[in-house]
């Protein structure tokens, strides 16, 4: 049947709405990451309560299910010691001679443009366990990463 002969209320021609995919593996979070999850849930609950548009409500509910799942599965990682590169540390390093600073965080907290990188990212996996002064392999170079310092930022 042609779309021209459907009623306006027919929704069978619309794209199906799938659940948001949950990243594989553990859901490690920093204290900040857990706060961000809690804030996002509160924000979505308020949007649902204030909305009267069924498609918007359905979208907010889908997002809420994702964030509630992330909240329930969150594994708060203890504050790192700062003696080596660990989850939650801020790392000052050079990558192929270019100085950079990144903080290693959970998947949902990651925002590379803000200097927050997931612990699952290849760069953070290459640095995990490294200490100040270490030269570490990355890509095809054996000494691509030099750890300049490791700090523990405020949680």
Automatic annotation (TrEMBL):
Q: Which residues form the Transcription elongation factor GreA/GreB C-terminal domain?
A: 83-138
One Pfam family name is GreA_GreB
What are this entry's molecular-function GO terms? Answer: translation elongation factor activity
UniProt entry keywords in alphabetical sequence: Elongation factor, Protein biosynthesis
What domain of life? Bacteria
InterPro entries according to UniProt: GreA/GreB_C_sf, Tscrpt_elong_fac_GreA/B_C
What name has this protein been given in UniProt? GreA/GreB family elongation factor
Q: Which species is this record about?
A: Novosphingobium tardum
In the record, what lineage is assigned to the organism producing the protein?
Bacteria, Pseudomonadati, Pseudomonadota, Alphaproteobacteria, Sphingomonadales
């Amino acid at each position: 049947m042609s779309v021209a002969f459907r009623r306006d209320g027919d929704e069978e021609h619309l794209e199906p709405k799938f659940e948001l995919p949950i990243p594989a593996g553990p859901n490690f979070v920093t204290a900040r990451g857990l706060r961000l999850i809690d804030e996002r849930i509160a924000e979505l609950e308020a949007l649902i309560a204030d909305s009267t548009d069924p498609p918007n409500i359905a979208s907010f509910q889908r997002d809420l299910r994702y964030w509630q799942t992330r909240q329930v599965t969150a594994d708060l990682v203890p504050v790192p010691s700062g003696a080596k590169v660990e989850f939650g540390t801020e790392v000052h390093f050079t990558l192929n001679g270019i100085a950079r600073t990144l903080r290693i965080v959970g998947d949902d907290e990651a925002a590379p443009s803000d200097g927050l990188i997931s612990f699952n990212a290849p760069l953070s996996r290459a640095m995990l366990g490294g200490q100040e002064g270490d030269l570490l392999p990355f890509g095809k170079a054996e000494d691509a990463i030099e750890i300049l310092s490791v700090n523990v930022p405020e949680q």
